[in-house]
Design a protein that fits this description.
The chain has helices spanning about 10-30, 35-65. It is mainly alpha-helical and about 60 residues long. Helix 1 (about 10-30) packs antiparallel against helix 2 (about 35-65). It has 2 helices and no strands. The two termini are about 25 Å apart.
């Protein structure tokens, strides 16, 4: 992965903020099917990346104890 140990927290916080803002934009612009579909794709893509990084961080924490 391209994310170093020092960048994990920053990546996860940024991913959370990005997913929340994309969800808000999707709700506000729900009348446009194109925007709604685009935001859904962005949310899924970002959430999947956050899942992988958080799983790696949890594995590292569990392994170190």
């Amino acid at each position: 992965m391209n994310i170093t140990e020092e960048e994990v927290l920053l990546f996860l916080v940024a991913s959370l903020a990005f997913v929340m803002s994309a969800s808000s934009v999707r709700l506000v612009l729900a009348s446009s099917p194109f925007i709604s579909t685009l935001m859904n794709g962005i949310i899924i893509f970002t959430a999947a990346g956050a899942f992988v990084v958080s799983f790696k961080a949890l594995f590292k924490v569990a392994k170190s104890e």
